Automatic annotation (TrEMBL):
This is GATOR2 complex protein WDR24. PROSITE patterns: WD_REPEATS_1, WD_REPEATS_2, WD_REPEATS_REGION. Catalytic component of the GATOR2 complex, a multiprotein complex that acts as an activator of the amino acid-sensing branch of the mTORC1 signaling pathway. The GATOR2 complex indirectly activates mTORC1 through the inhibition of the GATOR1 subcomplex. GATOR2 probably acts as an E3 ubiquitin-protein ligase toward GATOR1. In the presence of abundant amino acids, the GATOR2 complex mediates ubiquitination of the NPRL2 core component of the GATOR1 complex, leading to GATOR1 inactivation. In the absence of amino acids, GATOR2 is inhibited, activating the GATOR1 complex. It comes from Chelydra serpentina (Snapping turtle). CDD domains: mRING-H2-C3H3C2_WDR24. Keywords: Autophagy, Lysosome, Membrane, Metal-binding, Repeat, Transferase, Ubl conjugation pathway, WD repeat, Zinc, Zinc-finger. It is an enzyme of class 2 (transferase).
Length: 789
């Protein structure tokens, strides 16, 4: 064995010395207990029952209590305890339900003293009274606890926990008549040994069986419990109701808990399965153990501190058939291997950064963090500066980088969530409305995205049939749509910026051909185009470069020879004949032929309103064709992924809902669910409950649709007889009266019902609101001063 530290402790004239050591047992141990002078330890199990003396360098077997040719089940021990007042007195809990006491002072080989056979099932725990020599308590699988007087042959009291089994019983160290019992159903009961008929107090401590408990050695009101829910909880029993003051989350079911002597906040634990280590926790720092013993190779079944006033020696037994003495100085310190750095963003954009104190202590500009300035929800419990964590060599310092209140404002998120339209209108109207909302909030990129989605996914029956290239230029102050301009609105000077293209080899001059039965959208009315029967292709791109290059204007010779203005039949169908603004058309005809027109392209007209820097070009190919409806889906999918990666999950979810099946198949179900969950969580953080529910209802993800279907039952009582109402109708089955009567109009409320939680009277929402405008007393006449939030 590697060299270990040697520790010497002086205890009132007695000296405890030793090192980390172990010995092999003949069989797995179920429990261990140490004698009063800390010189001997008893090990009990199904096939072992021995006493070892604890020397300075080794364990020495002193006595084997399993004697006889045919050892009975009385020697098969589930628990063992050594009396702290009488060093010759032991008690064991046998697996056959027998409680056995042992007197080491007997001269014979068989030290068995008394047998109590009143339990019908396995006895899980035995416990001596800390000051009464002859008082013994037991807890059994049969659900009963029995108190024995060793001077009598039978039990003196029987306590029924009204539960399946008792897992642990412990006498209080400070309260003479009190003991605690833990049960399989998660409850903890406190009993007075003078009153066996009923417990003094009961509370639910854990979610599942409570396997162990231990009273604090110094504070009379602290009780520690451990259970199958992998938690160790510390309860303050000094109040009228048990109050949980500390909670430690472990990684496996907790089998044993033992408070560490001379250390108020330290507690040792071991697990029932999976985890073989023994941990010592500081309950004030429950996230990482203060010390850890890793010697055992199988589950640890019993732990005990060697002396009531010595915090440095811990004894343990295990299913690996070993008995260990652990020295605290040899324990590993998990905190030394923990990462002292951490990084996290708050809801309002503040950045919290934790790092080693040694790295930050040199920064003289650091100021103490007083907590969140808007919502004091962080750092609720401030540690007492006098409380120092013992045996902890590293700590972290917290730095918080706060964002400006204005720049970090989330008002845009709330306003967008409230104003967005996600359903109930045609797609084009939804996109127009949402683009307008985004534009009002100065979110130009989002607004442009909604406009592009309208252009891409508007049906051919509502969009002019032509190949379009629609872009928003820099500095745009409006959002013109590709079919949202009128020839009447074109100023006279627009001809200088018009480019007309004709087919190669053609030099004909034709008049403008218009269809009086066709329709054109007026920009002010913002209506959809109807009557178009020519398929169209739409090409979208951003306007880049100089506008002179874009329009291909000749500034040196602006009045060059001009060709005749020709508009092909495939262009915009008009709602009426162009006779309202002849001056503009005449001017366009004068500018018809341009020296920069290419003759090898299809006929094209480009018209640009002056009030915005957007370009709308309409082209028609030599053959009729139309791109499939899902042609732009990959681009839209990439756009949604872009917004989600930027943190704007609101945009991703809103587009997902508006487009529906058009884009749903392009994004996998798991990604959609993640987006929906994130957005719903944000909405609920801002208490936008109605909008959150609307998003759930409109969700295209099956896993999200069912979120608002759980816990939808509202249980109500009759306002007359105060008894629960059935789910049928408005009449109470018991008193046969209408339960939801309006206190103002005295009619049955079949819709939204509002009531005072003080007197239970209420009625129609509008009636109650109108009543409270003139009076604060209850309209039912009960005299109560009703308050509504």
């Amino acid at each position: 064995m590697e060299k270990m530290a040697r520790v010497t402790t002086a205890l009132g004239g007695n000296t405890i010395t030793g090192r980390t050591m172990f010995c092999h047992l003949d069989a797995p141990a179920n429990a261990i207990s140490v004698c009063r002078d800390a010189a001997q330890v008893v090990v009990a199990g199904r096939n072992i029952f021995k006493i070892y003396s604890i020397d300075e360098d080794q364990f020495v077997e002193k006595l084997n209590l399993r004697v006889g040719r045919k050892p009975s089940l009385n020697f098969s021990c589930a628990d063992v305890v050594w009396h702290q007042m009488d060093e010759n007195l032991l008690a064991t809990a046998a697996t056959n339900g027998v409680v056995v006491t042992w007197n080491l002072g007997k001269p014979s080989r068989n030290k068995q003293d008394q047998l109590f056979t009143e339990h019908k099932r396995t006895v899980n725990k035995v416990c001596f009274h800390p000051t009464e020599v002859y008082m013994l308590l037991s807890g059994s699988q049969d659900g009963y606890m029995k108190c024995f007087d060793l001077r009598k042959k039978d039990s003196v009291s029987t306590f029924s926990g009204q539960s399946e089994s008792v897992r642990d019983v412990q006498f209080s160290i400070r309260d003479y008549f009190t003991f605690a019992a833990t049960f399989e159903n998660g409850n903890v009961q406190l009993w007075d040994i003078r009153r066996p008929d009923r417990y003094e107090r009961m509370f639910t401590a854990h979610n599942g069986p409570v396997f162990c408990c231990d009273w604090h050695l110094e504070d009379r009101g602290w009780l520690a419990t451990g259970g199958r829910d992998k938690m160790v909880k510390v309860w303050d029993m000094n109040t009228n109701r048990a109050k949980e003051i500390y909670c430690v989350q472990t990684i496996a079911s907790v089998a044993r808990v033992k408070w560490r002597p001379e250390c108020k906040h330290h507690i040792a634990t071991c697990s029932m399965m999976v985890d073989h280590n023994i941990y010592v926790w500081d309950v004030r720092r429950p996230f990482i153990p203060s010390a850890m013993f890793e010697e055992h190779k199988d589950v640890t079944t019993g732990i005990v501190w060697r002396h009531l006033h010595d915090p440095y020696f811990l004894l343990s037994g295990s299913k690996d058939s070993t008995l260990y003495q652990h020295i605290f100085k040899d324990a590993s310190q998990p905190i030394d291997r923990a990462n002292p750095e951490g990084l996290c963003y708050s809801l309002f954009g503040d950045l919290a950064f934790a790092a080693k104190e040694s790295l930050i202590s040199s920064d003289s500009n650091r100021k103490p963090y007083i907590g969140d300035r808007r919502h004091p929800i962080f750092f609720k419990r401030k540690l007492d500066p006098t409380e120092q964590f013992e045996y902890i060599s590293s700590s972290s310092a917290l730095s918080v980088f706060e964002t400006d209140l204005e720049s970090g404002s989330m008002d845009w998120f709330v306003r967008t969530a409230k104003q967005y339209a996600l359903a109930g209108r045609p797609l084009a109207e939804l996109c127009d409305h949402n683009a307008k909302v985004a534009k009002e909030l100065d979110r130009d990129q989002v607004a442009q995205t909604w406009t592009m989605l309208r252009i891409i996914y508007s049906s051919p029956g509502t969009v002019p049939s032509a190949n379009l290239n629609h872009s928003l230029g820099k500095g745009s102050t409006s959002l013109p749509l590709m079919n949202s301009f009128n020839l009447k609105d074109i100023p006279p000077g627009i001809g200088n910026e018009s480019r007309l293209e004709r087919s190669k080899g053609e030099s004909r001059s034709e008049n403008i051909l218009m269809d009086s039965s066709s329709t054109l959208i007026n920009n002010d009315e913002n209506e959809e185009t109807e009557g178009s029967d020519v398929p169209a292709d739409y090409l979208l791109g951003d306007v880049e470069g100089d506008e002179d290059e874009l329009y291909m204007m000749d500034h040196e010779n602006p009045h060059a020879e001009e060709q005749e203005y020709i508009l092909p039949q495939e262009a915009f169908p008009l709602r009426h004949e162009i006779v309202d603004n002849p001056s503009a058309l005449d001017h366009l005809q004068e500018k018809a032929d341009s020296p920069h027109v290419s003759g090898n392209e299809a006929e094209t007209v480009s018209l640009t309103p002056v009030e915005s820097f957007s370009l709308i070009s309409i082209s028609h190919s030599l053959y009729e064709n139309r791109l499939p409806t899902d042609f732009f889906n990959p681009i839209v999918r990439d756009m949604l992924l872009f917004y989600a990666e930027q943190g704007d999950v609101q945009m991703a979810v809103s587009v997902l809902i508006v487009l529906g099946d058009r884009i749903r198949k392009e994004i996998d179900e798991q990604t959609q669910e993640h987006w929906y969950t994130s957005y719903i969580d944000l909405l609920q953080r801002f208490q936008l409950w109605n909008i959150s529910n609307e998003v759930i209802k409109l969700s295209t993800c099956r896993a999200i649709n069912c979120l608002n279907q759980a816990s939808t039952t509202l249980h109500i009582n009759c306002s007359n007889c105060k008894r629960p109402m059935s789910n049928k109708g408005w009449i109470c089955d018991r008193c046969r009266q209408c339960a939801s009567m309006c206190a103002v109009c005295h009619h049955v409320v079949k819709g939204l019902f509002v009531w005072c939680q003080g007197c239970s009277h209420g009625g129609h929402l509008q009636h109650i609101m109108k009543w409270l405008e003139t009076s604060s007393h209850c309209p039912a006449g009960c005299g109560h001063l009703c308050e509504y939030t």
